[in-house]
Amino acid sequence: MRRLIAVLMLLALPALAQEPAKSALAQLDPAQSAITAEGRDRGKPRPLNLQLALSQPVPYRVYFLDSPPRLVVDFRELDFSRITPDAIPGRDLVPAIRWGRFRPGWSRMVVELPGPYALRSAVQTQGAAGAGARLNLAIAPVEAKDFVTRGNALSALWDLPQPAALPPPQPHRHTGRSLRVAIDPGHGGHDPGAQVGAISEAAVMLGFARELSDMLTRAGFEVVPTRTDDSFVPLERRMTIARAGQADLFIALHADALPAGEAAGLSIYTWNQEADDRASRELAMRHDRADLLSGVDLAGADDEVAGALMDLARLETHPRSEAFAKFAVSELNKSGIGMHRTPIRGASFSVLKSPDIPSVLVELGFLTDPGDRHNLFDPAWRAATAQALTRAIGAWAQDDAIRAGLARH
């Protein structure tokens, strides 16, 4: 039955234009980075400032080594592959710089120094509206007796929260490969979604999708994005992208608008064609409206035979979707994320119709609610929410694999 459904769905859906990207590494901008020295050059070591422009914040640690004196900076998921140290302005102020990947998930920068140094400060700041980050390291010359290295004292300075503590990623229960998660930021292109002033749902969701995708990649999962820029992707095609990417879980991201006072807080939706909640019906119409404007009538997408097969397939996938929703609510509660009074709800959102991939739609909040709007632009709230969802995926994957094993016996 699973193979028959897969064949029918592949025949019914259009081909992909391109393979979705599966990487979410931070990048270094050498033109905006620099090494500078304080004071006049009198032939002796001077205080140095290392400024690195990054595409996004990353966890890092700083320490020193001797013979020769070196500053070492380890980064979590920073891509140095397309640039050379000579591209950094001020490179001639130090004897040498080298960098590269030194173990899975980590990159290392080594800066040889003209003598023993100590760290004065290490600050990483994020740009406005999540536009990149800047890491500033200030070091100053010290006497040899005051030179503290990792060899004689474990002096590693860590900054930023570490990636979410997760159980080891579970392989897919049938293929044995890493779990793949389709991340679907709602709307895009000529369909901005909900709008409050200059704020559009499409832009906010794309930003959060990138942060969540980065966290999932660091945790060992593979990500299948349905869109990576401000482009319009029809709802049926979003499912096509997920299916062609062999996604094991589909997560749609939204932050809608409803009349003031009608809705606030995060909620998670699973497929329910019989849902009669007024707010759910209104949101379903809002989500599908863009496709209707583009000439795609979702109402006639299923004929009677295909619809019956889909219903049969959902007998397996729907409970798995609901199970993920419960894991997500549990982890979000542990993180103190405010949710709707009914956090798990059903709705007939077309993007949840896929019968062969467990699917949920996460309403991160409502742009029409001031509290939700504040959360959506709060880096700490977004990070905590992304971490909770990442933990939920790991826990769900373990539970899903166990249940699959029990079902085979």
UniProtKB/TrEMBL annotation:
Keywords carried by this UniProt record: Hydrolase, Signal
Position of the signal peptide: 1-17
GO MF, one example: N-acetylmuramoyl-L-alanine amidase activity
GO biological-process terms attached to the record: peptidoglycan catabolic process
Record field: transmembrane: none
Any one of the GO CC terms: outer membrane-bounded periplasmic space
All residue ranges annotated as the MurNAc-LAA domain in the record: 239-394
Catalysed conversion reaction: Hydrolyzes the link between N-acetylmuramoyl residues and L-amino acid residues in certain cell-wall glycopeptides
Enzyme class per UniProt: hydrolase
Protein name per UniProt: N-acetylmuramoyl-L-alanine amidase
Organism: Paracoccus limosus
Lineage: Bacteria, Pseudomonadati, Pseudomonadota, Alphaproteobacteria, Rhodobacterales
